[in-house]
Input
Amino acid sequence: MTIKEVAALAKPWVSGSAQPFVRIQSITKKFDDFVAVDDVSLDIYKGELFCLLGGSGCGKSTLLRMLAGFETPTEGSIEIDGQDMAGIPAYDRPTNMMFQSYALFPHMTVERNIAYGLLREGVRKAEAMERVADMLRLVQLERFAGRKPDQLSGGQRQRVALARALVKRPKLLLLDEPLGALDKKLREETQFELVKIQETLGVTFIVVTHDQEEAMTISSRIGVMNAGRIVQVGEPAEIYEHPNSRFVADFIGSVNLFAGHVTVDEADHIDIATPELEGVIHVGHGVSCSPGQELFYAIRPEKLRLSRARPDLPNTFPAMVDEVAYMGNLSIYRLRLPSGRHLNATQVNLSRHVEDAISWDENVWVSWDDNAGVVLTR
Amino acid sequence: MSRALTTFAPFRLTASLLQRFGLGGRSLVIAVPVLWLAVFFLIPFLVVAKISLSEAAIALPPYLPILEWDGERAIFSFNLGNYRYLLDDPLYLNAYVFSLKVAFISACIALLVGYPMAYYIARSPEPRRTLLLTLVMLPFWTSFLLRVYAWQGFLRSNGVINNFLLWTGLIDQPLVMLQTDFAVYLGIVYTYLPFMILPLYANLVKLDPSLLEASADLGARPLATFFNVTLPLSMPGIIAGFMLVFVPAIGEFVIPELLGGPDTLMIGRVLWSEFFSNRDWPVASAVAIAMLIALVIPIMILRNAQAHAQEET
Ligand SMILES: Nc1ncnc2c1ncn2[C@@H]1O[C@H](COP(=O)(O)OP(=O)(O)O)[C@@H](O)[C@H]1O
Ligand SMILES: [Mg+2]
Output
């Protein structure tokens, strides 16, 4: 097998050979007249950690709740492991959910919370307790088995909620902003734990988040949502480097966006003229467009290079440094172009001698490679 | 604001003065309800307790003083005979037991009827919820006495219910409903139902719906969710509602008087007749004190249970 073939096996969405594990087909959810989820179709494969990413109110939770069986789709169908979910109540679905608020039972101890699902399923008490103990070990909460949820910290509650959802060994685990209530440091730690647990157990995860960094860090693939629709599905790097729309480019990471029109349209390169730059933007590959077409060009701040001497790159423009934000590992430059337009550029701080670094009010050259940016037609 | 106050010299002076007498802000806040209880509960209670220990007499007021001054010495004359009398005559004990039974069964029925109503109201969307709550409280706007009289009109042998049943041909003899224990239960449940519904509603409306979803998600059918999640979490509401029905129902006078038969001997009626018909204030007071003691014990048990339930949730 070639490396490519191995990769394709690990990424069934690439090979297209495997049967999707979760199959969402043209699903729509309306609350009265309001369309919360709008004609979403999505295939998710076994063992994936799939992130639904989008701003607040874009319908992520509603989509997840339809998978769990708490909301009935207005239109469309959901299949999980080959089984149509229409008419199957939440308590009969092969899914478990970790709630945004955790929804731990306040009158039960940690142990009873985790055992709850097993006991409802009719698992014998002794076996249930054994599995609960295993789960407690996995989330490192053995010492807290006898506590009530209100005697736990936020991070501990989060792990109880995860253990409670995992103990039934669901085929599909749905997580609604699982780390949303944790502070930044704990969140980063927990992200890795979550991925580790997911890989250990091999359960398919669908995670809802509004945090694009989190989505980039943990997921096998991301579905970006906007106003009830899925606007792009792809691996993190694909979404980041090849956004298919201005919305995605802007939502994931930060980006410098130019509006312009095509002046040269060749098979192996195009030129874009924009009033915000003196001269044209060279794109080093062909784009399906027509001469004169209005489109957008997006370039990420870390793809920009700053130098005092004029470099020999196809896209080189003069600029002045307006502001510098020193972040330690890197610096963020706010540049002003002669047109008055601002650009953001990040530079890795390679040297410890900040005195030598490009600083306020310097006239510099900003340049980028002709394959560094993305042409967007919508 | 509080910092500004505490650095304000006159305030500091007053505060330190009060503190010297052991009256910090905290004890002052407690002082108000304590004073209230002392004036409107403890003192009247002591007066009644005093009367219960005296001897009946044809006088004004109709009892003899406990403490007499015969010119040289004070003479105490405690009379425990009133209490002995309560124990000797089975009438009183029967009335107590019967009152407890009626109150307990009524509270249970009110719970069974009130719980689904409270649950439904708590789960209703907003405009309807307020409407339903208003409907629950609406009866309070008319006189309680009037409403109990109205039940007489319904339950009489030529009342609304009997007339209707006779008209449909389901019965050919009017049912005897008025002046029965059934009518008393009906009256008490009807009257006290709002006191059951309101605390239950207040509890159930706080119940986080995501807990019910979590339960379903973990494989519990609706009934299992109810018994494992909803019911235990609403225990404080159940106990509060139960207490609000049970306790006043024990001493209820009007409902057994107007709807019950002559043999529906509840303690409130006994009290009334001792006081107004027999004019035996000491025995009436003894009945009242004994009732209070009989009440305090179940209340303590319930309160204890409630404290436990609160701890649980
Ligand atoms: N039960 C409901 N009734 C009416 N509107 C709802 C309901 N649930 C969600 N919505 C609306 O649907 C939209 C999407 O909600 P949600 O899926 O929770 O968004 P998010 O992406 O933040 O999780 C929101 O505008 C929300 O107000
Ligand atoms: Mg949400």
Remarks:
- The mean pLDDT of chain B is 86.
- The pocket of magnesium ion (ligand 2) is lined by residues A 60-61, 176 (CB under 6 Å).
